[in-house]
Task: structure prediction
Amino acid sequence: MRLSWIEVTDYRSYAALRFEPDPGVNVLVGDNGSGKTSLLEAVGYLASLSSFRRAPDASLIRTDSTGAVIRGEFFQQASGGQEASGIRHQASAGEEKESRVGTTLVEAELPAAGRRRVLLNGKRATSRAAVAATVALVAFLPDDLDLVKRGPASRREYLDDLAAQLWPAAGAEQAEYERVLTQRNALLRRDGRMADQTTLDVLDETLAAHGGAVLARRLATVDLITPSVEQLYAELGETPARVSFRYAAKGLGESLEAASAAEFTARLAVAVADSRRADLERRSTTIGPHRDEIEIDLDDRDARTRASQGEQRSVALGLRIAAYRVLAERRGTPPVLLLDDVFSELDARRSARLVERLPEGQMFVTSARSEEVPVVGKRWRVAAGKVEPHD
Result:
């Protein structure tokens, strides 16, 4: 999977820009605030239909503009049996023969007022799932440490984002769960103990069905990535340790293991029914995937509270590379890889080990200082709303 070009209009600090990146490694260099991260954010938006900085669509629109447009074309090449590990240096990138097996044009129009419009190959895309089915992308971000050291929301989001790219139906399941959760919470907030019980029965059944599907995808994703995370943690230079996930769902158990969607639906239906009285009192939904805890252990230590920052960073990097490897293996082609100011956060030893394990495929790296990026690739200077070749 590679991005052949991207165009933005009235997006962030860019009035208009067309960027045609190298098919290999692209290093974007520029001062802080020059628009490096914004450009990566635009690439990420085309894959996920959301900002990886969790910014609302309105904030992506250039000041005093009526709307923003982000357009880009991705193409997918045959894997040819290549391994999705080890960095391919720029010298050999141009020698690789490509075999296009399909192109995907994604266009997003973000108006200052009204609903956004997303087209996939010229046709209206009604959900993120449609885009995730064809475009694969993994992003390393400065705040990835939050995956380990903060609360469970970031870890839930990580699993859901990866699941949506692994299984196209997963994105739709997540959207349906959020929809019924919003409806149920609105009813509880409005009516409290006076909420109509028949309406709640219908909402609870639907919540359990979609919640069971979300749970099954999350636990399946955990099983896929765990071996790679443990291996990568050791390869990044840390003392070998067993890296494991503990998935705790209120009312379902403190250490869930993978099961079918039907089994999780049945168990969740019982838990939601048991919590109804408490939900009526609290006027909110207290049971479900939106409240689940996902903890990461290093041997018997909680990585969030009992690991050093270096260990936490190695786990976070392992999570991202594992996601990349799983996607590359299951899709048969490497995803696009975004690294936003990652090397400035690492010491020399971890930077060197990370470079050794960066996978093949198209890559975008940002940095304020070119010399901080120990990767061979095409250099670009980002400044004043322009992206130009940089020696």
Summary: The CA atoms of residues 23 and 362 lie 5 Å apart. Residues 80-100 have pLDDT under 50 and may be disordered. DSSP finds twelve helices and 15 strands in the chain.
